Amino acid sequence: MIADEPRPPTAIGSPAAELLDAGAFRRAIVTFIERELPVWRDRPTRPQHTDEPNLNQTLCVHLNSASRRQHFDSVQFLQEPLQSSSRRGDIGVMPLGSIVVAGRNYEDFEQLLPIECKRLPTPPDKRRSDLEYVHGLPGHRTGAIERFKHGLHGPDNPCALVIAYVQAGSFGHWYTVINERLESLAKAAGNQDLWAPAEFLSFTGFVNAGGLERLASSHRRLQPPARTASVEVIHLWLRMN
Fold first, then answer.
1. Predicted TM-score of the model (pTM)
2. Cβ(221)–Cβ(148) under 8 Å?
């Protein structure tokens, strides 16, 4: 909407901006997170916790502070937002006030981008899958990719983000291990209606020299509870060790 009186031009990070392309807006959010992940990791004052809840909390605090300083002030980063079935995600990117994306008005109660965070490797625990990045134990939907596929997290969102805190092992190791697990799920009896061989992660590049890698994958979803037929997932792997 154009005001009657002159005003300074608005940037993509402003609540007043008329954002005509939803894909461009999501890319701007992901680019901001990419840039800030190594900065957050390398902050000398960051508490050196290794568990996921503390990592997620300090990351949220950092992203919110950085977004205000850099005038990327159309969004906020909320820790553990409610998803479907009273489940909680790890981080949700929410509007900071009302914004317009692709002609649609989004209020600050809506989730623009759901984010799951996982440690690699998964900490040893008999109650957890050995590769929770992909899936949990039978009957427990605790896997990052699994939750998006089943529509338990981000059921309305066609795009999602997974952040991996790589605490041991190389990027190449985890690329192989995760794709092998996805392949075995696709081949397992009874899984063909949900898991497919085409759902492998693909490498899209090193983001910078700060130990950050970007990958992508596309997954079909279980409808309902998901309200989109598929979900496009961006994966950001940050070397923590």
1. 0.89
2. yes
